[in-house]
Design goal:
Distance between the termini: 23 Å
CATH class of the largest domain: Mainly Beta
Number of helices: 6
Shape: elongated
Strand content: 25-35%
Oligomer: single chain
Length: 380
């Protein structure tokens, strides 16, 4: 019985720590037309905002169940702000900011830049997009201090300004699902010369239907393009079981036919600006195969979408950010390990105490003596 109690407590604490590590570390906003705007260009794409946990901070009045239900209020007010946009005017630049308002339905309620003006200068004045010749703009994560943390940014409007400052795009920040990541290796039984490697990343939005689909692939054919899609199969070990494109064919057209990689002269392709709705949510995509096709359609690469506990905000962009994310994960894992060790020690002490012989004093009821030695474990 004692061993079962220890095992249950350790399992419960581990699962709780895993849920904390895998909480909503990322907010996302999908841009659409600003209310009442009549601009020549309407931006589309995703704005993502990541927050770190403040090491060692904790609210003792929160139970483990509370943390499972919502992110803890111990996020830093330092954010990592990034975006992947399309449909912009070519070769121009302008502002993109989080605003005070929590609506994209009423222009009068969107408000101005969202930061703590009593203590800081406006950090948003320096945040801009810059489009290429195709009207696309993808930023490296920008490190900002606005004075507001995860919970305080939740639900706020992100506004896209064109080059003359006009507000043309708007979207609300909502929690994004944990990330799915597929590491690409050689497709089963493929023996050709193309051997792609790299990563495909899937972020699910709050509606659990729209995904941001990104990739960073190497060792492709040079200066060409090919498909890269989620497939119906859940293995990369048997070519017969990988299946075809994964979407809801009864009600939709195949969205994957337009999803491609485009390589440079070195055989590399990086993209994180694809927004899709395949008809399947987060849980429906876990474990599915991602297939990389050569330019002629041959299946040359494969990887399985797996759960990723840390935010991937910089995995496609910056090795510095990746190291920071890894360090934070290690720190959380270390804290969880120490907590498990402490739990085991407490249980061992209580079991030892409970088995210690205590003579019953004259006139003392045996039941009362047992009750006085009974211990319990409270999880916070």
């Amino acid at each position: 019985m004692a061993k079962k109690s220890v095992g249950f407590a350790v399992s419960l604490l581990f699962l709780g720590a895993l849920r904390l590590c895998a909480g909503n570390l990322l907010l996302g906003a999908t841009l659409d037309t600003y209310p009442g705007a009549s601009c020549d260009h309407t931006p589309s794409g995703l704005v993502s905002v990541a927050f770190d946990i403040v090491p060692g901070a904790r609210h003792h009045d929160r139970t483990l169940r509370d943390h499972r239900r919502s992110p803890p209020s111990t996020w830093s007010s330092k954010m990592s702000f990034g975006f992947q946009l399309s449909g912009l005017p070519a070769s121009e630049s302008g502002g993109i900011h989080i605003h005070e308002g929590t609506t994209c339905d009423d222009a009068d309620s969107v408000g101005g830049h969202y930061w703590t003006p009593d203590t800081d200068d406006d950090p948003w004045t320096a945040v801009t997009w810059a489009s290429d010749a195709d009207g696309r703009s993808t930023s490296d994560p920008l490190q900002l201090e606005t004075g507001y943390d995860y919970e305080e940014n939740l639900g706020h409007a992100v506004v896209w300004h064109n080059q003359d400052g006009t507000r043309c795009g708007c979207g609300l920040l909502t929690p994004m699902k944990p990330t799915l990541t597929a590491k690409i290796k050689t497709y089963p039984d493929y023996t050709g010369d193309v051997a792609p490697t790299g990563t495909v990343i899937v972020h699910m939005m709050e509606d659990n239907m729209h995904m941001q689909y990104g990739l960073d692939l190497q060792n492709l054919e040079t200066s060409t393009a090919g498909g890269v899609h989620i497939h119906s199969g859940t293995t990369c070990d048997s070519a017969d079981d990988v299946g075809g494109h994964w979407w809801t064919p009864e009600s939709d057209t195949d969205v994957w036919t337009a999803v491609t990689w485009a390589s440079d002269a070195n055989g590399r392709s990086t993209s994180s600006s694809i927004i899709l709705a395949t008809g399947y949510g987060y849980e429906d995509n876990v474990g599915h195969a991602v297939v990389v096709h050569a330019a002629d359609g041959t299946r040359v690469g494969c990887g399985i979408l797996k759960f990723n506990v840390w935010h991937p905000h910089s995995r496609l962009y910056s090795s510095k950010q990746t190291l920071q994310g890894s360090a934070s994960t290690v720190q959380l894992a270390g804290l969880a390990g120490l907590s498990v060790a402490a739990m085991v020690a407490v249980l061992a002490f209580r079991m030892k105490k409970a088995t210690t012989f205590k003579p019953i004093a004259d006139g003392e009821d045996a039941t009362e003596a047992e009750d006085s030695e009974e211990g319990g474990l409270t999880l916070y």
